[in-house]
C-alpha cells in the first residue's frame, strides 16, 4: 500500500541518528570489553551470589507489585469520591519519584529511629528490628513505587473497558467475583507480562534504593556492586565482569518481554456507567485503597515534613546547595531537550516507515538502552573517555546529559510513537492524497496533536534526570554534583538534617515539574491557535 | 474522460485477481455498487494510486495516470469518515486544499468563497470536532473545491448521515460535479443515492465491473 506520505528526509535523518546511537553503544561496549581484557584478575566479586540475590529480589518485587497493582486498580476503578483524580495523579507520579526520596521516607517511618519504633519505644518500652534494611526494606520500597506504577497502568485498562460490555454485565447481574473474572481480568491480563517484565527490569537494575537500604554486600544489585567496585574498591576487572553480566541478563529479559504485547500508553477512558459492587466488597475496596494511599503517600509526606521542619534553612544558606540545584536543573533541562530532539527524529522517521524491518530498526535505539542501565552506561562512558585521554572532569557534564537522555528515550518513544502512528493510520491516505509537505504535516497536524504528549515526555525526561543517582554517581566530583548526589553525600557523612531538606526540595521540584511542564507545553502548543 | 482499462490487481494470497474496466464522463456522477467486501474500496484505491495494478491502463483525457503517485494524481478523495483533522478549524481544514505557496490574504478569501459555496459561511473558526457529520463532509467538499482536481472519488460518503442531511449533501455533490465538470466516482450501496445522482452505474460482481 502507498497510503503513507513519502518522507525520505525523515527516514534518512532517523536512520542516521540510529546509526550514531548504535555506534555509541558499540563504542561503550568496546571500552568495557577492552578494559576487561586489559585488567588483571583477582577480583573479589561473588557473581553467583549477586545474581541469585538480585533475581530473587526482582522476582519478588515483580510478583508483589503486580498483586498490589491489580488490587489497587480494581478498587480505584470502582470507587467514586471527591479527590479521586488527585489519588490517581499521585500514583501516576510514582514513575518519576526519585528512588532516593522514597527510600529516605521509608527509613523515617520504618527505620531504627522511625516513627514506628519511636511509638513502640514510648508505648511498650522496646523497639523492633527495623524491617527497612536488607531484603525486606528493598522490597517495601520497590513495591511502594512499582505497585503504584502498576496500579496506574492497570487502572487505564479498566477505565477503557467498553461501556457496552459493562452494561451487558450489569444487566446479567454479575456478582463481584464474576465481574472481576469475566470483565476486569481479561482487560488487565494482556498487560501483565509486559508490565511484569518492566517491573522486573526496574527492580533488577535498581540503584539508589538498594544503595540506601541494602545495608551491605549481602543485598546488592549488580548496579550497586558495579558502583562499589569502581568507586570504593577500584576493582575495574570486577566491575567489567558485572557490567557484562548485567547487559546479558537485561537483554534476555527484554527479549522475553518483547514477545508479549507492550504496555499500551494510550490512556483512553470511556464513560463508565454507575455500577457499584455489593457493600462488603466496597468495604474491601476502601480498605485496599486507604492502605495503598497511606503506604505510598505517608513516606513522601514525611519527607516533606522532616525536610521543611528540620534543616531547611541551614541547607538554603549553603552555596553548594544552590550550585547543585543549578546543576540539576541545567542537566535536567538539557537532557529533556536532547531527549525530545532524539525521540522526535526517531518517532517521525519510524511513523513514516511502512516496512516491519525498518520500523524495528528505528526502534532499536530505545531498546538498546533498556539493556544498558545507568551505572553500566556511565561505566562505559567513563572508560571510553579515559581511553580517549579526555579528563573526566571536562567530559562529565556532557556524558551525564547524553546518558540521561538515552535512558529516557524508551519512555519518550513510547509516549510520542503511538499518537504519531495513530494519525497516519487514520489520516495517512488523506495527507498523501492532499500532497501535504512534511513541514505542513508536522506544523499543522502532528505538532498540535502532540502538544500534550510532548509536555508529558519533557516532564518525564526532566524528572528522570533530576532524580538520577546512577549516572552521576560515577562522574560526580566535589565541584560537579546534583541534588541526589549531594543528598547521598550528606547521608554518607551523617548530616541527616541536610539530607532530609534536600530530599524534600527534590520531591517538590519533581512534582512541580511533573504536573507543571505538560500544562505549560500544552499552552505553548495551542497559543498561536487562539 | 476518465478511463480504466482492464486494471488487474490481487492482494497477497488472493486467488482470482480483480479486473476493472470503467469509463467516467466529465460533469457526471458514475456510481459503483456491490456487496460488502466485493472490492469497491479497492477500485478507488487503484484510481487514487494507493495501490498499483499489475497490468492495465488508467488515463484522464488520454493522459496516463498510473506512473503518478497519489499526491500528484488529479484526484480528490472523500471517505465515509475521518476526512478532517479534528483539532483544526473548518477554515484551516479547507485551506489544506490550497496550492502550496498561496499568499495568505488570497488564501483566506478563497477559503471563505469555498465555504460559502458549500453553505458554511460563518463557520470558518469552528473547530472540526465541534461540527456535525454533514457539516464535516461539507468542509471536506470545500477543500475539494480549493484543490480543484478533475476527478472526485467518494467512498460511501453519506453512510454516516441521517436521511435529511444525506439528501442535501448528495444534492451538493451533484451540483458541484456539474458546475466544475468533475469526473465523480461514487461508491454507494444505497439505491436511492444512485437513482438520484448517477448518470452511469456499475456493479462489482466476481471481481469485475458490470454496467447496471
Ligand atoms: N490491505 C488488504 N490486504 C488484503 N486484503 C484486503 C486488503 N484490503 C481489503 N482486502 C480484502 O479485499 C476485499 C475487498 O475489500 P474492499 O475493497 O474494502 O471491499 P468493499 O469496499 O467493497 O467493502 C475484502 O475481502 C477485503 O477483506
Ligand atoms: Mg469499502
From TrEMBL, chain A:
<feature type="transmembrane region" description="Helical">
    <location>
        <begin position="284"/>
        <end position="305"/>
    </location>
</feature>
<dbReference type="InterPro" id="IPR000515">
    <property type="entry name" value="MetI-like"/>
</dbReference>
<feature type="transmembrane region" description="Helical">
    <location>
        <begin position="131"/>
        <end position="155"/>
    </location>
</feature>
<dbReference type="GO" id="GO:0005886">
    <property type="term" value="C:plasma membrane"/>
</dbReference>
<keyword id="KW-0812">Transmembrane</keyword>
<protein>
    <submittedName>
        <fullName>Thiamine/thiamine pyrophosphate ABC transporter permease ThiP</fullName>
    </submittedName>
</protein>
<feature type="transmembrane region" description="Helical">
    <location>
        <begin position="325"/>
        <end position="349"/>
    </location>
</feature>
<dbReference type="GO" id="GO:0055085">
    <property type="term" value="P:transmembrane transport"/>
</dbReference>
<feature type="transmembrane region" description="Helical">
    <location>
        <begin position="12"/>
        <end position="33"/>
    </location>
</feature>
<feature type="domain" description="ABC transmembrane type-1">
    <location>
        <begin position="325"/>
        <end position="517"/>
    </location>
</feature>
<feature type="transmembrane region" description="Helical">
    <location>
        <begin position="53"/>
        <end position="76"/>
    </location>
</feature>
<keyword id="KW-0813">Transport</keyword>
<feature type="transmembrane region" description="Helical">
    <location>
        <begin position="394"/>
        <end position="417"/>
    </location>
</feature>
<feature type="transmembrane region" description="Helical">
    <location>
        <begin position="195"/>
        <end position="218"/>
    </location>
</feature>
<feature type="transmembrane region" description="Helical">
    <location>
        <begin position="238"/>
        <end position="263"/>
    </location>
</feature>
<feature type="transmembrane region" description="Helical">
    <location>
        <begin position="499"/>
        <end position="521"/>
    </location>
</feature>
<feature type="transmembrane region" description="Helical">
    <location>
        <begin position="361"/>
        <end position="388"/>
    </location>
</feature>
<feature type="domain" description="ABC transmembrane type-1">
    <location>
        <begin position="51"/>
        <end position="255"/>
    </location>
</feature>
<feature type="transmembrane region" description="Helical">
    <location>
        <begin position="88"/>
        <end position="111"/>
    </location>
</feature>
<dbReference type="InterPro" id="IPR035906">
    <property type="entry name" value="MetI-like_sf"/>
</dbReference>
<keyword id="KW-1003">Cell membrane</keyword>
<feature type="transmembrane region" description="Helical">
    <location>
        <begin position="454"/>
        <end position="476"/>
    </location>
</feature>
TrEMBL record, chain B:
<keyword id="KW-0997">Cell inner membrane</keyword>
<keyword id="KW-0547">Nucleotide-binding</keyword>
<keyword id="KW-0472">Membrane</keyword>
<keyword id="KW-1278">Translocase</keyword>
<protein>
    <submittedName>
        <fullName>ATP-binding cassette domain-containing protein</fullName>
    </submittedName>
</protein>
<dbReference type="GO" id="GO:0005524">
    <property type="term" value="F:ATP binding"/>
</dbReference>
<keyword id="KW-0813">Transport</keyword>
<dbReference type="InterPro" id="IPR027417">
    <property type="entry name" value="P-loop_NTPase"/>
</dbReference>
<feature type="domain" description="ABC transporter">
    <location>
        <begin position="2"/>
        <end position="212"/>
    </location>
</feature>
<dbReference type="InterPro" id="IPR003439">
    <property type="entry name" value="ABC_transporter-like_ATP-bd"/>
</dbReference>
<dbReference type="GO" id="GO:0016887">
    <property type="term" value="F:ATP hydrolysis activity"/>
</dbReference>
<keyword id="KW-1003">Cell membrane</keyword>
<dbReference type="InterPro" id="IPR003593">
    <property type="entry name" value="AAA+_ATPase"/>
</dbReference>
<keyword id="KW-0067">ATP-binding</keyword>
<dbReference type="InterPro" id="IPR050093">
    <property type="entry name" value="ABC_SmlMolc_Importer"/>
</dbReference>
<comment type="similarity">
    <text>Belongs to the ABC transporter superfamily.</text>
</comment>
<dbReference type="Pfam" id="PF00005">
    <property type="entry name" value="ABC_tran"/>
</dbReference>
<dbReference type="InterPro" id="IPR017871">
    <property type="entry name" value="ABC_transporter-like_CS"/>
</dbReference>
Amino acid at each position: 500500500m502507498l497510503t503513507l506520505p513519502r518522507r525520505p528526509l525523515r527516514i534518512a535523518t532517523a536512520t542516521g541518528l540510529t546509526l550514531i546511537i548504535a555506534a555509541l553503544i558499540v563504542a561503550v561496549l568496546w571500552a568495557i570489553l577492552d578494559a576487561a581484557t586489559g585488567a588483571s584478575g583477582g577480583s573479589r566479586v561473588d557473581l553467583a551470589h549477586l545474581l541469585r540475590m538480585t533475581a530473587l529480589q526482582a522476582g519478588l518485587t515483580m510478583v508483589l507489585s503486580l498483586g498490589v497493582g491489580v488490587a489497587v486498580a480494581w478498587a480505584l476503578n470502582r470507587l467514586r469520591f471527591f479527590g479521586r483524580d488527585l489519588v490517581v495523579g499521585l500514583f501516576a507520579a510514582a514513575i518519576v519519584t526519585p528512588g532516593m526520596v522514597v527510600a529516605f521516607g521509608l527509613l523515617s517511618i520504618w527505620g531504627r529511629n522511625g516513627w514506628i519504633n519511636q511509638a513502640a519505644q514510648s508505648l511498650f518500652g522496646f523497639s523492633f528490628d527495623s524491617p527497612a534494611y536488607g531484603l525486606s526494606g528493598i522490597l517495601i520500597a520497590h513495591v511502594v513505587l512499582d505497585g503504584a506504577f502498576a496500579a496506574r497502568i492497570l487502572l487505564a485498562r479498566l477505565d477503557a473497558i467498553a461501556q457496552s460490555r459493562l452494561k451487558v454485565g450489569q444487566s446479567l447481574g454479575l456478582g463481584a467475583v464474576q465481574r472481576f473474572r469475566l470483565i476486569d481480568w481479561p482487560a488487565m491480563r494482556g498487560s501483565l507480562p509486559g508490565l511484569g517484565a518492566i517491573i522486573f527490569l526496574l527492580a533488577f537494575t535498581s540503584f539508589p534504593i538498594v544503595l540506601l537500604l541494602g545495608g551491605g554486600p549481602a543485598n546488592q544489585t549488580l548496579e550497586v556492586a558495579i558502583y562499589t567496585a569502581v568507586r570504593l574498591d577500584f576493582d575495574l576487572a570486577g566491575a567489567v565482569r558485572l557490567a557484562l553480566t548485567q547487559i546479558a541478563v537485561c537483554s534476555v529479559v527484554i527479549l522475553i518481554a518483547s514477545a508479549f504485547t507492550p504496555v499500551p500508553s494510550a490512556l483512553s477512558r470511556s464513560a463508565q456507567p454507575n455500577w457499584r459492587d455489593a457493600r462488603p466488597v466496597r468495604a474491601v475496596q476502601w480498605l485496599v485503597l486507604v492502605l495503598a494511599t497511606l503506604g505510598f503517600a505517608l513516606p513522601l509526606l514525611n519527607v516533606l515534613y522532616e525536610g521543611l521542619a528540620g534543616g531547611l534553612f541551614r541547607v538554603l544558606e549553603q552555596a553548594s546547595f544552590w550550585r547543585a540545584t543549578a546543576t540539576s536543573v541545567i542537566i535536567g533541562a538539557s537532557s529533556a531537550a536532547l531527549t525530545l530532539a532524539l525521540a522526535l527524529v526517531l518517532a517521525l522517521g519510524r511513523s513514516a516507515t511502512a516496512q516491519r524491518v525498518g520500523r524495528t530498526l528505528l526502534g532499536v535505539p530505545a531498546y538498546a538502552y533498556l539493556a544498558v542501565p545507568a551505572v553500566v552506561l556511565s561505566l562505559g562512558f567513563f572508560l571510553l573517555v579515559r581511553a580517549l585521554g579526555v579528563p573526566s572532569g571536562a567530559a562529565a557534564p556532557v556524558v551525564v546529559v547524553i546518558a540521561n537522555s538515552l535512558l529516557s528515550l524508551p519512555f519518550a518513544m513510547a509516549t510520542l510513537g503511538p499518537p504519531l502512528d495513530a494519525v497516519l493510520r487514520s489520516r495517512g491516505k488523506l495527507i498523501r492524497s492532499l500532497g501535504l509537505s512534511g513541514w505542513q504535516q508536522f506544523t499543522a497536524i502532528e505538532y498540535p496533536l502532540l502538544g500534550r504528549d510532548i509536555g508529558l515526555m519533557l516532564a518525564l525526561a526532566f524528572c528522570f534526570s533530576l532524580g538520577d543517582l546512577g549516572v552521576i554517581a560515577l562522574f560526580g566530583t566535589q565541584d560537579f554534583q546534583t541534588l541526589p548526589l549531594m543528598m547521598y553525600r550528606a547521608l554518607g557523612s551523617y548530616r541527616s538534617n541536610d539530607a532530609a531538606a534536600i530530599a524534600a526540595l527534590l520531591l517538590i521540584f519533581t512534582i512541580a515539574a511533573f504536573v507543571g511542564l505538560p500544562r505549560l507545553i500544552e499552552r505553548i502548543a495551542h497559543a498561536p491557535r487562539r | 474522460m476518465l478511463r480504466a482499462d482492464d486494471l488487474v490487481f490481487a492482494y497477497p494470497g488472493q486467488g482470482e485477481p480483480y479486473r476493472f474496466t470503467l469509463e467516467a464522463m466529465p460533469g457526471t456522477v458514475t456510481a459503483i455498487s456491490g456487496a460488502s467486501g466485493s472490492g469497491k474500496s479497492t477500485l478507488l484505491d487503484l484510481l487514487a494510486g494507493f495501490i498499483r495494478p499489475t497490468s492495465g491502463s488508467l488515463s484522464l483525457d488520454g493522459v496516463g495516470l498510473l506512473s503518478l503517485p497519489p499526491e500528484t494524481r488529479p484526484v480528490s478523495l472523500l471517505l465515509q469518515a475521518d476526512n478532517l483533522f479534528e483539532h483544526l478549524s473548518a477554515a484551516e481544514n479547507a485551506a489544506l486544499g490550497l496550492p502550496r505557496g498561496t499568499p495568505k490574504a488570497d488564501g483566506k478569501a478563497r477559503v471563505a468563497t469555498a465555504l460559502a459555496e458549500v453553505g458554511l459561511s460563518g463557520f470558518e473558526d469552528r473547530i472540526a470536532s465541534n461540527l456535525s457529520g454533514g457539516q464535516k463532509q461539507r468542509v471536506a467538499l470545500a477543500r475539494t473545491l480549493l484543490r480543484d482536481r478533475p476527478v472526485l472519488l467518494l467512498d460511501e460518503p453519506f453512510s454516516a448521515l441521517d436521511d435529511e442531511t444525506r439528501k442535501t449533501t448528495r444534492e451538493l455533490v451533484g451540483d458541484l460535479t456539474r458546475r466544475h465538470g468533475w469526473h465523480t466516482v461514487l461508491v454507494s450501496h444505497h439505491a436511492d443515492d444512485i437513482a438520484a445522482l448517477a448518470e452511469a452505474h456499475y456493479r462489482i460482481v466476481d471481481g469485475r465491473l458490470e454496467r447496471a
